[in-house]
């Protein structure tokens, strides 16, 4: 399972794609990976906890990006 924040989507999509490419090189069938998108980094721990509680996944990887600036 990959949990990804929606903020900075272009950058995170690039990171996720490279991650999945490396998984494929290791023999992982990426079609078996469920992608979960949440609004931002703040929600990632909550979504990870829910995913752990579901016991549906062997591995949970989270991608979020915080960039310092005016918000």
State the gist of this model.
39% of the residues lie in helices and 15% in strands. It has 71 residues and is of the alpha/beta class.
Provide a descriptive summary of the structure in words.
With 71 residues, the chain is α/β, with parallel strands linked by helices. It has two helices and three strands, in the order E-H-E-H-E. It has helices spanning 9-25, 44-54; strands spanning 2-5, 35-38, 61-63. It has a three-stranded parallel beta sheet with strand order 2-1-3, with helices on both faces. It is flat and about 40 Å long.
Largest sheet: 3 strands, parallel
Pattern of helices and strands = EHEHE
Radius of gyration: 13 Å
- Name the helicity range: 25-40%
Q: Name the quaternary structure.
A: single chain
Instruction: Kindly report how far apart the N and C termini lie.
Output: 29 Å
Structural class: alpha/beta
Query: Can you count the helices?
Result: 2
Question: Which outline best applies?
Answer: flat
Walk across the major sheet and give the strand order.
2-1-3
Overall average pLDDT = 91
Low-pLDDT segments, ≥5 res:
none
User: Beta-strand level of the residues, as a percent range?
Assistant: 15-25%
Q: How many β-strands, per DSSP?
A: 3
């Amino acid at each position: 399972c990959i949990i990804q924040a929606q903020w900075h989507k272009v950058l995170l999509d690039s990171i996720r794609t490279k991650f999945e490419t490396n998984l494929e090189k290791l023999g992982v069938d990426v079609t078996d990976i469920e992608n979960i998108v949440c609004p931002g980094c703040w929600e990632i721990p909550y979504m990870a906890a829910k995913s752990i509680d579901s016991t549906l996944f062997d591995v949970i990887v989270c991608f979020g990006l915080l960039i310092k600036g005016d918000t």
